[in-house]
Inverse folding.
């Protein structure tokens, strides 16, 4: 089986991470795994894990990007691609138009993953013009059903994490702790309240600043930690946050770390992790990772994050924008650590990868293409939740 995944770039984020994980799994099964993107820092990792990468300018939001359509059509024929997996809207337009112009009897099968609550409209509807849609949460599956006329089946396959990398009770080792103490000596002896996520208005930083100010009144050793990178286009927003911190007199109580590659370790030394996005998250991987290692989370109860909380820590959910409720829940957890349910199987990386390959296998089993490989491609008996289209 030859699978091609299309996405804008391979830098960082949930789409990129999912692409890398599926590519690694396919290569490990002996299949041919290919990715087309505009490149990025994850390309070397992708190649080292056994996949092929083709660097195309497929990320440019311009009609000129559609010039790649005939080139991609030739590529699909030359490489004898069996499955094309669309992971973002602009590449999806290129992929769909290339696929549509091919012979239906011999062209690849077309799959998409709805990674987010895309704005409703014709541009986003391209993600439904496929043979099978994968939704990263039930909330996304419901979004597709509510806003789009989708003839394709929609399967919910939650993003998964590796329980080996995120075992219950995980704690960063001594070497990491020493390095952390050298970088952030001001945090020693503090109770860390951590907000993971890039610097963006969607992530609820103003609510976080207010939360730290409220908690300081009864938990004087609390310290807010904002872990996430900043894009140039959000520079003004970052300045706005710093001004808000000064106005609240919290200069010594909040730290920005920038982008970090050791979020697991940071969360392991945190007293609480919070998720405060005012708009629903499509899934909420950092919430799942924190809970998996046994670190309590307090979060706005909606979207994919709400589904994770319902399965592992229902008492952690707070109504969106309820700052008083947010404070009360955090204070309650700081005073008495809650009991967290163990990681459900449906949220594991193995379940995600198995279900994804099963979708590929179901498509191939329904066609006349390459029947000899179906026994390996389809993995019967691996359950995955299906949501109505």
């Amino acid at each position: 089986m030859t699978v091609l995944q299309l996405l804008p770039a391979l830098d960082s984020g949930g789409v990129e991470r999912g692409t890398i994980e599926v590519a690694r799994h396919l290569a490990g099964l002996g299949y041919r795994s290919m990715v087309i993107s505009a490149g990025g820092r994850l390309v070397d990792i992708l190649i080292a894990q056994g996949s092929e990468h083709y660097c195309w300018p497929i990320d440019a939001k311009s009609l000129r990007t559609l010039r790649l359509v005939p080139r991609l059509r030739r590529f699909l024929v030359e490489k004898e691609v069996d499955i094309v997996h669309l992971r973002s809207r602009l590449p999806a337009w290129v992929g769909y138009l290339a696929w549509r112009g091919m012979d239906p009897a011999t062209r690849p099968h077309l799959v998409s993953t709805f990674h987010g609550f895309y704005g409703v409209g014709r541009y986003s509807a391209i993600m439904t013009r496929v043979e099978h849609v994968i939704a990263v949460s039930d909330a996304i599956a419901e979004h597709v059903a509510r806003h789009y006329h989708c003839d394709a089946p929609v399967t919910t396959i939650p993003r998964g994490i590796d329980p080996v990398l995120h075992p219950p009770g995980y704690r960063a080792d001594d070497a990491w702790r020493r390095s952390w103490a050298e970088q952030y000596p001001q945090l020693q002896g503090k109770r860390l309240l951590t907000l993971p996520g890039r610097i963006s208005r969607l992530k609820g930083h103003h609510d976080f600043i207010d939360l730290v100010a409220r908690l300081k009144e009864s938990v004087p050793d609390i310290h807010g930690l904002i872990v996430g990178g900043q894009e140039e286009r959000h520079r003004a927003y970052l300045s706005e946050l710093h001004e808000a911190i000064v106005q609240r007199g919290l200069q010594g109580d909040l730290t920005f770390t920038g982008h970090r590659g050791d979020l697991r370790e940071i969360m392991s030394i945190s007293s609480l992790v919070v998720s405060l996005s005012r708009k629903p998250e499509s899934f909420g991987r950092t919430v799942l990772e924190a809970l998996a290692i046994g670190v309590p989370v307090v979060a706005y109860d909606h979207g994919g994050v709400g589904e994770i909380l319902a399965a592992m820590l229902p008492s952690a959910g707070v109504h969106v924008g309820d700052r008083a409720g947010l404070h009360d829940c955090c204070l309650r957890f700081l005073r008495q650590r809650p009991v967290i349910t163990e990681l459900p199987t449906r949220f594991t990386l193995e379940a995600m990868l198995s279900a994804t390959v099963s979708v590929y296998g179901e498509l191939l089993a329904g066609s006349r293409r390459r029947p000899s490989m179906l026994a390996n491609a389809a993995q019967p008996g691996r359950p995955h939740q299906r949501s109505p289209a």
